[in-house]
């Protein structure tokens, strides 16, 4: 899991601050409001007049997560027309979380969600090979809705079947559920980070134990014991 962790060199153990840098992808069809969501989240700003993103754009969000943790989110705004192109593998590299966005008023953008999810899962994984956490955003919920997004139960079932970590109805215009969706994704990223660190510690303990056994250090008096069975 890509996480840069820094410690203040002058800090005591009780006051050390941890900083994490996480790369998050924001993907989906053209015109679903990806850029608007990022602008609302990062700058608390909304405009009706964004030009279509060409290629990829970036934004940085700094979160004072708790008294000892600063999280920097590097948000990658990937153009809708980049779908399944050769460059998406480069764009996706080292990402640890993602949002897939569709427009609730255009059912065709929902139909494309599964293709984005499959492409994402094929091109980026966590170090253990599992998919990165991905949350589905049903954007523009201030407008009339088309399709199964009108049924919460069907949306829940869809997300379970397709492997989403959750879903939110959002509106960048009305500032609905943007912060909540982001916080949910960061929580899942942090959980994966802790699991990875725990696994690394267990692997380190196993290596140390194997090393001791190989060097005859497995008994208290330093002697080795063999078995002919």
TrEMBL record:
Q: Where in the cell is it found?
A: Membrane
**PROSITE patterns documented for this protein:** RAB, RAS
Give the way it sits in the membrane: Lipid-anchor
| Pfam families in the record | Ras (PF00071)
Keyword Lipoprotein included in the entry's annotation: yes
Coiled-coil residue windows = none
Keyword vocabulary terms for this entry = GTP-binding, Lipoprotein, Membrane, Nucleotide-binding, Prenylation
- Has keyword Membrane? yes
Among the GO biological process terms of this entry, one is:
phagosome-lysosome fusion
Question: Its GO CC terms?
Answer: late endosome; lysosome; membrane; phagocytic vesicle; trans-Golgi network
Question: In UniProt terms, what function does this protein have?
Answer: The small GTPases Rab are key regulators in vesicle trafficking.
Per the record, the similarity remark reads: Belongs to the small GTPase superfamily. Rab family.
Q: What is this protein called?
A: Ras-related protein Rab
Specify the species.
Trichoplusia ni (Cabbage looper)
